[in-house]
Amino acid sequence: MSPPYGVWAHICGTDLVRDEPGSSTSWKITCGFPPGVSYMLENRAITKRVLPELFERENIKPIDAYPAQLLENPGGPVAPAD
């Protein structure tokens, strides 16, 4: 399998559903800014305040730069110009 323009989706949210006969199928695929990312960022901030020793002990990597990194390329990969 080869993605268009050789670019893979690094951020992708897929909603999987099971139909009446029991088969799984993709209902919706979201590529780009993930809709639930704000929950992840807020949960991380709260957890860091409540359990700072966990982050120190487990060497959990920071995600503070995540929003800025998304803004650097808001449209995601695009086709090369002709």
Automatic annotation (TrEMBL):
Q: Which parts of the sequence belong to the Circularly permuted ATP-grasp type domain?
A: 1-72
**What PANTHER family is this protein classified in?**
BLR5612 PROTEIN (PTHR34595), SLL1039 PROTEIN (PTHR34595:SF7)
Tell me the protein's name: Domain of uncharacterized function (DUF404)
